[in-house]
Amino acid sequence: MSPMSELNNASDQEEIMDTTTDTESLSIDDHVLVRYDNKLFPGVVTKIEDNGARISAMEKYAASWKWPQRPEELFYENSDIVQKIKSPIQKSRRGNFDVPEYVNE
User: Fold this and answer.
1) CA 12 → CA 2, 9, 54, distances in Å?
2) pLDDT of residue 25
3) The whole model's pTM is what?
4) Cα separation of 73 and 34, whole Å?
5) Which residue ranges does the record annotate as region Disordered (predicted)?
């Protein structure tokens, strides 16, 4: 299964939760999935550091995602950066986005 394919079942979720991305393969403005509190969140890389990266993550909003009104950058260790993803797809003018690689919980 391609890591860029849409994942829908529990075994797919477990598989993706067990993967990590090395910051050597990341660039600023790359979109990624990060693990926070054992849940996945889409975000964008804002700064790369030796053992991780600073990432601005999206917020879950109903069945879609939104960028927070007040962007918050957090440091994520390599082990919490799960994978690179495609850019989120804007669904509405209200700022709702779809993230096809996100695993539905």
Assistant:
1) 11, 5, 26
2) 84
3) 0.76
4) 12
5) 1-23
